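Q: What does the assembly look like in three dimensions?
Context provided by user:
Components: two
Sequences:
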Amino acid sequence: MTHDQPLPTLPGTIVAIRRHRRLRFLPIAIAAALVVSACTQSGGGATGGASGGGAGDYPNRAITIVVPFAAGGPTDTVTRLIAEPMGKGLGQQIVVQNVAGAGGTLAAGQVATAAADGYTVLMHHIGMSTAPSLYKDLAYKPLEDFATIGLVTEVPMTIIGAKDFEPTTLEELVAFVKEHGEDVTYANAGIGAASHLCGLLLQNAMDAKVTEVPYDGTGPAMTDLIGGQVDFMCDQTTNTTEQIKAGEVKAYAVTTPERNKALPDVPTAKEAGLEGLDVTVWHGLYVPTGTPEGVIQRLSDELKKALKDPTVVEKFGALGTVPVAEDQATPAAHREKLQSQIELWKPIIEEAGVSAG
Amino acid sequence: MDLLANLQLGFATALSLENLFYGFIGVLLGTMVGVLPGIGPTATIAMLLPITFNFPAVTALIMLAGIYYGAQYGGSTTAVLLNLPGESSSAVTAIDGHQMARKGRAGPALATAALGSFVAGTVGTLILALFAPPLARIALQFGPPEYFSLVVLGLIFSIALARGSAIKALAMIALGILFGTVGQDTYTATPRFTFDTRELYSGINFVSVAVGMFGIAEILRNLEDEKTRTVMVKAVGRLLLSREDLRRIVGPVLRGTALGSALGVLPGGGHILASFASYSFEKRMSKHPEEFGNGAIEGVAAPESANNAAAQTSFIPLLTLGLPAHPVMALMAGAIIIQGITPGPNVIVDQPALFWGLVVSMWIGNVMLVLLNLPLIGIWVKLLTIPYRILFPAIIAFASIGGLAINLNPYDVFAVAFFGVLGYFLVKLGAEPAPFLLGFVLGPLLEQHLRRAMIIAQGDPTIFVTRPISLTLLVLAAIALAVAVLPSIRRKREVVFQAEED
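A: Here is the predicted structure of the complete assembly.
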């Protein structure tokens, strides 16, 4: 065996490779390139492209949208769907970067301290408004450290029960919970998750306490609900619609003021006799405070256009949701939503005595 | 025959030029990312997800699935050659696989991994085609108490992972469990052992631990002394399996496949147990348990088969019920949702081409993987001839990039370094990394299911013995414990016997 075998390519060993005659490790080279490209953040990127009115030459390089949750989840999917048309409109590549952890506060904290130049954008959902109440020492203040760009979508939620769980309507469910109290189990996807928040609101509305069973995410929670290990839960239509249609779980109500197109037979909570249960998983885009007005306006305009893109509308439909109305995809409407949601959740979370550290 | 018609549909779908091509791209990419420690299938699939938006649904799924099971193949390569496991499954392969490589038997070790994976993949796919819906129903019988009992059984069984002292192995399992608790608690969201560092809220990443404890620690140990440097192997023996090797791996491959197929179906973490459990099982079954840990070919065949079989059958909950068993499956679900198909119980009926096309493509993919991997063995083995002054820095660079690529979290790289040093000192103290890793992986599962079961039962511990499946598993665990403890009581007698034979 000779010593002049080629090496797996890595940035750190590129020099070593040049000394070798043949490069037989092309596959590794490709994979390594993949890695490097994954590690590349907004820094590099292409040059050129369109310039926006009132925003100087913005954007003249790639833009990063930070997603505070793992790839493949609903928030990630929503982001990737709008990133494509927005990138086309902006004439620049948009890199979607997942910074998961600590209920989304890790990503928000990173973006809060990023350069306010419009090249680092945060996608966040309802968790943006609950974090100040859930986390004691949050390193950022949602209203002060971020400028809003616009709302993206409001994903409705559904209250669902195990197939063999006794109550068949929301009215019966309320009565059953009032009678059996903590013998009834409610599955959620962990503290601060949409399913947890809906559960808090639901218990408030029913004026009764149930036993909450936290899971690491909605997938395992749904598995145990279908298996009849827990009694009921409340989750995004994205996760529940197919299971409802297939009869694996029963639906009690949707949590929006209107019925859902995909589930026309499921009543709204209000129709079923439960007031005060209006909750959606709303998503919006943010940039750090101090970002130039022109840049914010440019991003907001491109967001509006992206939300009208037929592919986006179609794929959102597959997720059981719709893009927000045009007047909601604005900085002002988004800011109002954020403010009112922070005020809504504060007392509910404090009363429930939950904290995420 | 329904099945024949369905398979025909599957072949027609999977053999289209486009699907064959992307299936091949998938397994090729999978093999490559599997070879690189740290760049697991999750990261790759996440990166490639947007590309698949414009594919037909079945093509997207075929390619992404190819990456997943291709990575299971590739993951064993660096585990065997460099002691760098990139996945929990290949951590077990590293134990005996790397010992084989040190003895100049890297070729047979890799060939065993490839053949075992192929057999397991074929059987797993067949099970998927024949029994997916009923198996998924059985899997749903497993609730928190059942999973808890299953993990208990797995932990007790796996004390066999240790080569030396059982006390040290237990200590390592306990230490692993402790490190597994780092991060935010699911139930109360209380941060544990995070030292006010939000980067630690999601816990310590498995890849960082495995790469540090195995790979980096190995390098440190090798640097101690010029003469005992053993990452490189002087002589690389024959590349393929001898008849004797084949005879020895038939049983382990089949048993590993059976165990892996069964555990893979369980969405609550069964696939994680597969390779650990099959390794321990083989060690218990073996007439020469002392060979395990010192380069037993069975110790490569069993976990590799189990792990690949589980990779196939873990598609069952997703495809039949729309329930993703682990993060890779969740990504896969995301890919189908983007296509306008929401994974759920109706997919088999509404989208037969999708289901059967994917099933058949998995088998074709497994054939491709064998054809791809067997010739590559010769090339991989040559990696070992790279001089250490180049190889060692390269491994460390690989490990660090792998750590960073997981979540772009610098703490994952710090963890690689930390566990490298920790692993080094533990090896010096005669404690092994495998039981540590086992505790690290299974500890959180144990805690989660225990607490969930207790919450559901409102604090009544009899839930574990009043549910029949849970009770059965606990009884098996008790028997396994008895079997494990008895020999140490009888050890004196055995030593006497051995002395007489000598």
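Follow-up: The longest strand of chain B covers residues 183-184.
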